[in-house]
Amino acid sequence: MSTILDVMALEGPDMITGTKHTLLELHTFCMAVKASKHVFPRLKPTVRADVGAWPSAKRMASIKEIYVAAQNLHQNEVQKKHSFVWVDPDASTESPSLASDTKDQKSRHALEQIIEKHCVDHLLTAEVSCDTTEQILRDILEVWENTGEGVDDVDRRMLAILVSRDIDNPSGHKCECIYELAVDLSLGRSSSFVRDMVRIVRVQETDTRQAIIALTNTLAAREGCKKCWRGVLLRWLNQNEKQEARWGTAIIDHLVQTMDPATWLSFMQSLETIFADTIADNTNKHELPSLLRPQILTWVSEVAKFGPTLTKLEEVSESPSAVRHMLFYGTEPRRKENLAILSHLKKAEGNSAEAVMQNIVLWISGRRSDMREVIECLSKLLDAPYEAIEACNEIWDAKCGFLDIPGLPTHEQAGLSRIVSRDVVYYDDASEQYKIMMQPDPLTSKAKRPLQTIAKRRYDVPLAVTEVMVAGWIQDDDVAPETKTVIECLARLLNLEVYKRDIPKGELSKATEFWNGIEAEIMREAERLEGLKRTLKAKDPLQTALLIEEYNIPDSNLLEDEIQELPPGIIDLVELIDDDEIEMSFTLASYTELQRSAMGVPSTANNLLLRLTIDRYALPLDVRIPEIRTDIFAVDMLLSSVYSAAMANKAELLPNCPIHPISTVKTILDSLPKLSVIRDAVHISTVLSKYHVDAEKLISWAYYSTVPRYITGSPPSDPR
Fold it and tell me: Fewer beta carbons below 10 Å: N end or C end of the chain?
């Protein structure tokens, strides 16, 4: 027996490496000898002492399982070509002559060598080592022997194997991590942390940065001991520093690019909390990773004051990079400028200027703008009057192509609380209609919560349109000087030309052409809606009337008003077909066949339908408008009001005007002679046509339109 042990001791690790089952067979044989009542007592005292100190069969079975698990893990990693190498950033770079030796050592899991050495020390030489590797194996055995085949137990075992990989020069934090696994197990702590750690360590094999993020978040949320795992995190941070040349970007820039502001701030603050004592005790002897350097953490603490402001800014941004760009560490002057911008945005929260200020900040991202000019503009907007803010919003919308279509309700008028999303885009020739979903007041009952839309269109707005708008405010004597200052500041920031005197004719022509197209589109929409209203009235006049009244839709028609005043027995016989057309139905039931024949009515007819059309334009103008000969002062006042509306370019004051564009209204009125000439003319229509072909049409419309009239009396009719 002693001879066998002596031979194996001489062979040592070489023999164990070559025949891994020999040692287990020897242990089984010696355990059988030790259990023998006849053989064991006859051995030499020294042999009996050595064999008596050998590990139990259960312990050797655990060692074998750990050895096999380590081998299987390493083989799987090699097959996947994702072999993990624990890079020690504190170790010096190896020389080329040692490269081949290092490769051979890395070809096996570190636990294989530890276990083989342990077996030699305990089974053959009886020289028990007390170094760090021995402690690692004892801690892994503690984990192994107190776990079974359950999912949580398998996770603990796997984590112990993963953490102990590639331990050439074991670090204390690795031993502590394995020890903590054993302690947590003995205390019956939750294994969710273990499952997370298994996943994180697996991720680290292929993506160190994602593993750093995951481990930081896990440790920040964990209660209890985290010192050993903090050492793992610090090692990964240092390892990442050495890999940045391969990544092409620093980790701090990577985090800014991939995280929203709130997540970035939370992550950086968690890192600072985890390594608080390390940062406080830091000396030049051990330089900290870039993420833990004081200047970076100071920048984080300054930006953290504006966390909600950054979040709100990102919510209204179409591109996350526009906001995240402000988080970059950059140069000191740029950091100060970003903090000044954020400070202005924070002061504007809840202010009417907040929206346009946010738009400006997002617009300058990625552009070479003078930051001092930007900060000055934001400062002026903070103190600007409401009229200036409204003007700036209109300028901004025009610059970006968004325009509210006149005549459609805004979200304030519709009583809606907030914009949910702008998610549907329509393309119709020159414009794109953005469908903005609005959410009603949450206090409103569910029965009164229809999903409404606010129409807003994005046009290809010529630059001249925006510049003419700016000139309109700048050259208006009624606009306050402080308002002009704010408008001019915004215009120059948006690279718009500011015309303080004359506007080039070419620019005016472009703007006029654009607005003429908008006006024509509005009129087409008005005609479509009017046709829809008539169709609804024909189907259900009562409900349509209630609907029109509920939404305060203009609905004035003289002929319809006349019908409503008919006696109850007759009103049912009259139907409004169009604004100038009605249909009357008379029953023929009381007429005999002879009477019907005398009237020329077919004998099979049951009703007589009479359709009447009122054509005001078929009558002479002085018949339709007698005041044109009898009271030219009233007519002059009427046409003057139309002229003022046209000069102000307010189409809403000229509803259903048949003359397009609105500039033509002004042209027609400018071409007319004195009203006394028209009054004294024999044939007024002939005279008017010589001045302008649409002059009579405009005057006739003005008389019967919804423009406030100073002429009383009902219009003449010409029933047919």
Answer: C
